[in-house]
Amino acid sequence: MSSTSTSEPRTGRWRVPSGLWSPAAGGFHPFGLRARKAEVLLLIGRWPELEDLYRQDLEQAVAAGLRRQEATSLLGRGELQGWRNEHRQAEETLGRAAFIFRELGDATGRLRCENGLAVVYTHLGLYQKAEALITACSEQARQLDHRAALCSFLNSHAVLCRMQQQYDRAIACLEERMAISLARGDASDIASSHMNIAVLCSERGQHGLALDHNRIALEMSERTGDIMLQHHAVYNHASILYKLGRNAESLGFFGKALVISRHVGDDDSSALILEDIARVEAKLAAQGPCHEAGGSGAM
Questions:
Q1: Which of 57, 228, 273, 289 qualifies as a FRET site for 33, CA 20 to 30 Å off?
Q2: 201 and 139, same structural domain?
Q3: What is the pLDDT of residues 237-249, one digit of tens each?
Q4: Residue-wise pLDDT tens digits, 184-218
């Protein structure tokens, strides 16, 4: 399970414009209202229902020849495929969406697709391709003063740097993102930045500092109701506590992560979390009762 947030499809972000009502085959199809419903479904983790919504909207848009709605449906579907680690499918879907947004002259939609593609390339190990795309698009976002898009590219760049163990570069990206997000008042971005900094600190052995950052991310994710952000933050907290030797506490957070993972239907993550739980339980059994009495002394 990846413990760093990699994409930015959550509500409250930069959005692709769409008409509120658009004629479709056989009458009217409320694309705009359904887009708002999609945001809620993503936040609460109802992925199968969300996939079905995108499929229906795409069919309606294609049947009616509505290119903008077609691109918007493809974008949402591609981002969801990325969340599900279906990277090859996401690459194709986001590529189709980006092509249409480019035809329409829609810079916002195109940049969002290209950020998703950069994340896909990173996970496929195509680091040079990902960095070239992020660099070019970040410059465009700066020129357009598109701060929400820039925050997404900074986050993606941090993920790319982390994958290559370039921790100083990754933290610099997240610190810039944090400053922009604070100025914008974007709680989800702020929480995500804290969480990703926690991951980097933990990987550098700074577990106490990591726990401080992740605790903030946990509290903020609960307030925003973003289930995927909360999922990552809970899992990160469990991992950091385990590294600190606080095994009983760690087990509780792994259990919470498993509940969320099953709720969103993420079978791959659920399988990995079950392995984590088995490892912690084995360690607790070997240590015997009362081993953790009085705590680990950390924090």
A1: 228
A2: no
A3: 999 999 999 999 9
A4: 999 989 999 999 999 999 999 999 999 999 999 99
Token output for 9: 């499809």
Q: How far apart are CA 237 and CA 195, in angstroms?
A: 9
Alpha-carbon distance 262 to 277, whole Å? 14
Asked whether the beta carbons of 44 and 260 are under 8 A apart, the reply is: no
Q: How many alpha carbons lie under 13 Å from residue 250 in its C-beta half-sphere?
A: 26
Query: Across-strand partners of 29?
Result: 22
Q: Are residues 142 and 276 in the same domain?
A: no
- Taking each helix axis as running N to C, give the angle between helix 127-143 and helix 107-123, from 0 to 180 degrees, rounded to the nearest 10: 160
DSSP 3-state of 245: coil
Q: Are 102 and 140 in contact (CB under 8 A)?
A: no
* Distances from the Cα of 208 to the Cα of 29, 73, 143, 159, angstroms: 52, 42, 38, 21
State the total domains in the chain. 2
Is pTM, for the whole model, over 0.85? no
DSSP conformation class of 79: H
